[in-house]
Design goal:
globular; alpha+beta; outer membrane lipoprotein receptor (LolB), chain A
């Protein structure tokens, strides 16, 4: 019995030692948060205008069903120019100012997943943060923070059918413990006006280094966009960016055969 207790104490001591090592340099979570926000602001400031090919695989299921079914695949060209997202239609040679929901008029679709949320959360005073401690994410030692953006400070616009509204949201983010580079950003809105006809909007962005103009930049390379529509249907978009390059006035857009867009009961959400 004493031996078993000694072994248990040794294991506990080792775990506490490892935790202490992970917590080294986190005596002041607010100071660490300041360094993280400065690091992300540096990435955003250095990021050139760029364009990528966006591929959206769309799925859905009733809430009482365990299985997702594939609806369709949508392919667009998206440009991030001056803190805005611009989209090109399949086969077009220029980007347009109009909403993505006007280009893809059926099914669940959204914007802001790749270009807008990080700036809204980390720049300015809209969000409040809470340190959750050391963690591991995608094989990296990481730090996790939770955040919340109240409705009165939010710019998160949700459109559904003929209605729209600004909603507050909350979420979490993870940064690499060594570089403080963003690894994942997850946000969720689950308290929405009843007139929107939605009970949940959830988005997750996964970040990695992407080479543009012979330089590596930290970009969200893939994302998931999920919606629960009342009275009970779940939609999931799995989104990826491919072939990212610097955007110039002479940029030309080329496409392969666009994916067929199959009408569904969900209306645009963005």
């Amino acid at each position: 019995m004493l031996l078993r207790g000694a072994i248990g104490f040794a294991i506990l001591a080792a775990a506490l030692h490892a935790l202490g090592a992970d917590l080294a340099g986190v005596d002041d979570p607010d100071a660490l948060l300041g360094r993280i926000r400065a690091r992300i602001a540096e990435h955003l400031a250095q990021l050139p205008n760029y364009t990528c090919h966006e591929v959206i695989d769309r799925f859905g299921r009733p809430l009482n069903s365990p299985s997702l079914y594939r609806q369709d695949r949508v392919e667009l060209e998206v440009a991030f120019v001056g803190h805005r997202e611009l989209f090109a239609r399949p086969g077009a040679s220029s980007f347009e100012e109009e909403s993505i929901s006007k280009m893809v008029s059926t099914g669940t679709i959204g914007n802001g997943v790749f270009g807008v949320h990080a700036e809204a959360i980390f720049i300015g005073d809209a969000a409040t943060f809470k340190f959750r401690g050391p963690d591991h994410k995608d094989g990296h030692r990481s730090f996790r923070y939770d955040f919340e953006v109240p409705q009165e400070k939010s710019h998160f616009l949700v459109r559904h059918n003929s209605t729209e509204g600004i909603i507050g949201y909350k979420g979490s983010f993870w940064v690499d413990a060594d570089t403080l580079d963003l690894l994942e950003l997850k946000l969720k809105a689950d308290h929405m006006p009843s007139y929107l006809g939605l009970s949940l909007v959830e988005e997750t962005m996964h970040y990695k280094q992407v080479r543009i103009r012979d330089t590596d930049f930290l970009l969200p390379s893939k994302a998931e966009h999920a919606v629960i529509e009342q009275p009970g249907f779940y939609y999931l978009n799995v989104i990826s960016l491919e072939g990212c390059r610097e955007f110039t006035g002479e940029s030309k857009v080329t496409f392969g055969e666009p994916g067929e867009t199959i009408p569904s009961s969900a209306a645009p959400v963005q």
